[in-house]
Specification:
Elements: H1 3-30, H2 37-51, H3 57-71, H4 77-91, E1 121-125, H5 133-141, E2 146-147, E3 156-159, H6 173-184, E4 190-193, H7 194-199
Parallel strand pairs: 1-2, 1-3, 3-4
């Protein structure tokens, strides 16, 4: 009897146990407020063992993301803070499993604007289903726009699909708060979800 058979027969039970294990693992890895390459490699091994039998989108997405981080053998500061935010959110059971956060909890533009890229300045914050932040930024550059840090010249702030209910307390929450304040002051900055941004690619 292989894992795939057990997944078909007791998929719900397996998924539930996997999520509980991953929450415990995430809590342990994020407990000291930092994460090193050896810990990311340990996480990668656990995800590799569980991704095949899992029907949880977060496990598959996290596995892909960890592989991307380890591809170049370097855990840079962006990757570090993004992964730490993700693990903290997950260990607090504060994660939307594969779903975009309910729009009412985020200060999104309503109605959401039509997005263009040529000559426009984008900023990305949070954890993205599309890929690492550098992949999102490359998608903008390929379409004639620019992407980087949040400034008063930023046209669009894109919030990753894996935002959490506690976004105000996470490191990416600072950008959302700042962009909202600038928008309230009359600066023409749009705040949109990753899923809205992807529709215009």
């Amino acid at each position: 009897m292989d894992n795939k058979f057990y997944n078909r027969v007791g998929g719900d039970r397996i998924s539930s146990r996997q999520i509980d294990e991953l929450i415990g693992l995430a809590r342990g890895l994020a407990a000291d407020g930092t994460i090193n390459k050896a810990e990311v490699e340990f996480l990668q091994k656990w995800l590799a063992a569980n991704a095949e039998i899992s029907n949880q989108p977060i496990i598959r997405t996290l596995y892909r993301r960890v592989n991307e981080i380890l591809d170049d053998g370097v855990l840079d500061s962006d990757e570090h803070s993004e992964l730490l935010d993700t693990l903290n959110s997950f260990s607090n059971r504060d994660f939307e499993l594969g779903e975009v956060l309910k729009p009412t909890t985020l200060p999104l533009c309503d109605p959401a604007p039509t997005l263009t890229f040529s000559g426009r300045q984008y900023c990305f914050t949070g954890t993205f289903n599309f890929g690492q932040r550098k992949h999102c930024e490359r998608a903008i550059a390929d379409r004639g726009g620019a992407a980087g840090n949040l400034t008063q010249k930023t046209d669009v702030l894109v919030i990753g699909a894996y935002a959490t209910e506690s976004w105000k307390h996470s490191s990416f929450g600072d950008k959302i708060v700042k962009a909202t304040a600038w928008r309230d002051q009359g600066l023409p900055i749009s705040i949109v979800t990753e899923s809205h941004w992807v529709r215009f690619l």
